[in-house]
Structure formats: structure tokens, C-alpha cells
């Protein structure tokens, strides 16, 4: 098996956010995709070890915040390489509340979801969320994972499904 | 809700293939992502109305074939706008058998999977597959959905989850 083949799948770069007892938190993810259009649902994969996983399960909601090519890469790093368990990840990160969810200003779009189903795997939970609100906050080109990897030369976060964040 | 936000998620372009009683068939998809790295698993979303959906359920296997920017767009159209129920989609499409699955020559990589779980939604089945074989067949840039939409100006297939294939 040539695992390079797995790297040929295309992804975006997202901050997945939630409220942890009223405190905003989140993590960086690349594995998100729309599943149905009517009603609109989105699936996102979050590692069991990510604090955000348990926060989403407790809250029953999440937001996918779309990182753009011109977004500050520090947001990706902050949400990808630190844990919300012992860090206030949003400290110093400008954000607003959209659809009642925290959305970093660095994002160019957001999709708020209620969890309607989950699929557990060995290391990750796939959350299926029904979209409750969505919006484009500014005109920008969504960042692909390939752009992040090839242009920004981003590091790999240990809990990314693709093991190459 | 501004549905334009949903269009800011990033995707690739894939042919999802399977064997229908020994006959190769498949469909075009954009919603595929790696879920876990060890063991490697991939999730792909396939509309209930796609003949390939029932074929995968019967076979318990599928292959994700990665379409490249330089792939013949006719393959995308053929697998996206016709039904394998009444059409031999591989007729005239050069392909080889890799990891015991049919892989169009137009693809630049393939990932063969055994179905290990499914999640049903209103209109789509999310298949979770454990990777049994994978390979890169040629060096090429994987096509993103954005490239397909913006450069190739691809049409929309009615059963694509994002309603914009």
C-alpha cells in the first residue's frame, strides 16, 4: 500500500468551534464535507484526543469556520497545536458570534450545525451536523490543505486524520 | 442562511468504483475524506439514487479513484451524468484492475476499501471504508472541485451532495 495515494485527496482548512460552558474553544480540522443538501448536513471528523471532541458531544453543536488563503496562519497553529483543555485558545484571537457560535475573524465563512448523528471510529468521531445557520463574512479564496502544505508550509498536527496537518 | 457559505468547503473530484456482478461500474463524487490514519479509513458520501450505492452495499467494497487536473473531463461526465443501472459506464473507458478494483486510467491515484461502517442520512449513505490497497499511478495534480467548477466549468450532477457538480 502506497500511503502517498491518501495524500491525493483534497481538503480545506477549518477551525471547528464550540462553547465549553460559555467559553469559546475549537480545533483545526481538514476533514469536513457536505453530505446532504436538503436538509443541509455536514460531516466533520474530530480526533478523540481533541478536547473539542468532548465539548461538541456535551454541547450538541459545532461551527465549521472556513480559513482563507489570506487568513493569519497563526490561527491555524493556535487551534491546531494547543489543547483547549488547558489553554484559552480564543485569548487574543478576534472573533464574533454568528448563528450563536464563535467564529474567528480570520475565517471567510461559517456553517453552524446541530449534531444529528455520530459515527465512531478507532481514533476519530465523525459528527453529522444539520446546518442551522451559515454565512459568508468576506470575499476571499478558501484555503485548501494543499495550499496550506505547499505555500504556507504548515506543520503537521498530531491528531489530524491525515496525519499531515 | 446563506448557502454560498457551503460552497466554500473544499473538495476533490473522484470516481467511486465497484463491481456489479463482475461488471465494473461507478459514479462521480466530491465528498470523500480520510477519517483515521491507523488503520487508514476513508469516508465517502453516495446518494441513495446512485446505482453505485446499492452495488457498494452488495459488494462491501469500493475504490476511490482520484481525478487529476489533466484527466479527460469526459470521464467525470460519463460517471456523473449517466446511471450504471442501464449503462455500461466503463464501455470505452480505459481502465485497469488495481487492488482487485476497477480504476480508470484517467485517475492519478486509487484507494481500495472494505466497507466497515455506514451512516444513513435522508438522501445519502456515508460509507466508512478501511483501506486495503492504495497507489499512485502517475504524477499529476489532483483536481479540486473548485478547479473543476472554475476552470473546466463542469456542470452540476443532480445527485451530488453539494448540488453543484
Gap between N and C termini of chain A:
21 Å
Q: Strand count, sense and closure of the main sheet of chain A? A: 7 strands, antiparallel
Please mark out the parts of chain A with pLDDT under 50 across 5 or more consecutive residues, or reply none: none
- What is the CATH top level name of the domain at 3-32 and 50-112 and 134-150 in chain A? Mainly Beta
Give the overall form of chain A: globular
Series of H and E elements of chain A: EEEEHEHEEEEH
Based on secondary structure, the structural category of chain A is: mainly beta
Under the CATH scheme, the architecture of the domain at 3-32 and 50-112 and 134-150 in chain A is Roll
Provide the residue-averaged pLDDT of chain A: 91
Helix fraction of chain A by DSSP (H/I, runs of at least 4): 10-25%
Total helices of chain A: the number is 3
CATH topology of the domain at 3-32 and 50-112 and 134-150 in chain A, by name, is Pnp Oxidase, Chain A
Provide the β-strand percentage band of chain A.
35-45%
Salient structural properties:
homodimer; 165 residues; mainly beta; Pnp Oxidase, Chain A; seven-stranded antiparallel beta sheet; 42% strand
Provide structural commentary.
The structure is a homodimer of 165-residue chains. Chain A has 165 residues and is mostly beta strands. Chain A has a domain at 3-32 and 50-112 and 134-150: Pnp Oxidase, Chain A (Roll). Helices cover 15% and strands 42% of the residues of chain A. The first copy, chain A, contains three helices and nine strands; from the N terminus they run ββββαβαββββα. In chain A, the strands form two sheets. Chain A has a seven-stranded antiparallel beta sheet with strand order 2-1-5-8-9-4-3. In chain A, a hairpin with a 2-residue loop joins strand 1 and strand 2 (23-29). Chains A and B meet through strand 3, strand 4, strand 8 and strand 9 of A and strand 3, strand 4, strand 8 and strand 9 of B.
Amino acid at each position: 500500500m502506497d500511503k502517498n495515494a491518501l495524500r491525493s485527496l483534497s481538503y480545506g482548512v477549518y477551525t471547528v468551534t464550540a462553547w465549553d460552558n460559555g467559553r469559546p474553544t475549537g480545533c483545526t480540522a481538514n476533514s469536513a464535507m457536505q453530505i446532504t443538501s436538503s436538509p443541509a448536513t455536514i460531516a466533520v471528523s474530530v480526533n478523540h484526543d481533541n478536547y473539542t471532541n468532548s465539548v461538541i458531544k456535551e454541547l450538541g453543536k459545532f461551527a465549521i469556520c472556513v480559513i482563507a488563503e489570506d487568513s493569519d496562519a497563526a490561527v491555524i497553529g493556535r487551534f491546531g497545536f494547543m489543547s483547549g483543555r488547558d489553554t484559552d485558545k480564543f485569548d487574543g484571537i478576534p472573533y464574533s458570534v454568528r448563528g450563536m457560535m464563535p467564529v474567528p475573524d480570520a475565517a471567510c465563512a461559517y456553517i453552524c450545525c446541530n449534531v444529528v448523528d455520530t459515527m465512531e471510529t478507532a481514533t476519530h468521531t465523525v459528527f453529522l451536523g444539520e446546518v442551522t445557520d451559515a454565512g459568508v463574512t468576506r470575499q476571499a479564496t478558501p484555503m485548501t490543505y494543499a495550499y496550506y502544505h505547499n505555500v504556507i508550509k504548515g506543520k503537521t498536527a498530531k491528531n489530524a486524520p491525515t496525519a499531515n496537518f
